[in-house]
């Protein structure tokens, strides 16, 4: 947007603002055009003092202001599903008394469409711990995640796995793909197998150096063997890797 406004020589489309009262620091509130406001402010402070922030002053209430902002946000590619979902959840209580059907009618969307966004915003924090980059979640992912939260025993297993996955990714300094995380959570959600059945290989286990650098990840172990990933870009030394390999051999080699 900075480059676009510089090329055009002006801000083409005015932002929508409304007057505020009782605030000694501000006279107006930006309803639509926060990025335009930021861009003009940046240009004015970086050797382009002649640029003006163009506005269209409206007399509108809170609910109408939300609807106007929502219309503009839907046309933006850089607003994530999670950001939009959290805006909808705040608006549901603030402007519509928790009535989802009323809100869907007012913003002109289907109730099922709105439900998916609200479900995304309501995902509990213990589950979100599995996603170090939660902004990458979309409403499509909710379809797979929501069933993992009931009944209570399944929910507990998923939360435990989410905490382990979050720690693993933090230790390795590299986030997993969203679909890989969801697959791991889905596996953890499954009821434990009855005694006598083959054991699962379990969640990936990371072996770290004495300095806390991830060295190896044990992806699983079964009758065929042990599957390993060498984390050679984690900052650990070759000596750390050799030591970790010896530990794996000592544990698994008959």
TrEMBL record:
Residues 189-204 have a biased composition (Low complexity). GO terms for molecular function: DNA binding. It holds the Pfam family SoPB_HTH. The keyword Nucleotidyltransferase does not apply. Keywords: Plasmid. Residues 189-214, 231-254 are annotated as: Disordered. One of its GO terms (biological process) is chromosome segregation. Residues 80-146 form the SopB HTH domain. GO terms for cellular component: chromosome. Residues 236-254 have a biased composition (Basic and acidic residues). PANTHER family: CHROMOSOME-PARTITIONING PROTEIN PARB-RELATED. This is SopB HTH domain-containing protein.
């Amino acid at each position: 947007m900075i480059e676009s406004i510089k090329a055009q020589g002006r801000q083409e489309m005015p932002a929508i603002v409304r007057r505020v009262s009782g605030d000694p620091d501000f006279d107006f509130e930006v309803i639509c055009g926060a990025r335009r406001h930021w861009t003009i402010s940046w240009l004015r402070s970086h050797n382009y003092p002649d640029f003006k922030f163009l506005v269209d002053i409206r007399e509108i209430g809170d609910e109408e202001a939300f609807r106007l902002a929502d219309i503009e946000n839907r046309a933006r590619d850089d607003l994530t599903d999670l950001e939009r979902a959290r805006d909808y959840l705040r608006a549901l209580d603030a402007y519509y008394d928790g009535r989802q059907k009323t809100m869907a009618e007012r913003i002109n969307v289907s109730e099922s469409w709105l439900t998916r966004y609200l479900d995304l915003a309501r995902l509990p924090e213990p589950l979100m711990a599995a996603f170090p980059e939660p902004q990458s979640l979309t409403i499509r992912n909710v379809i797979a995640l929501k069933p993992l939260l009931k009944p209570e025993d399944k929910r507990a297993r998923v939360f435990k796995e989410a905490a382990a996955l979050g720690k693993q990714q933090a230790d390795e300094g590299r986030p997993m793909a969203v679909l890989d995380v969801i697959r791991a959570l889905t596996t953890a959600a499954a009821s434990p197998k009855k005694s006598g059945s083959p054991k699962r290989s379990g969640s990936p286990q990371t072996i770290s150096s004495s300095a806390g650098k991830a060295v190896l990840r044990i992806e699983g172990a079964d009758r065929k063997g042990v599957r390993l990933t060498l984390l050679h870009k984690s900052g650990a030394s070759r000596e750390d890797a050799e030591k970790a390999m010896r530990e794996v051999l000592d544990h698994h080699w008959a």
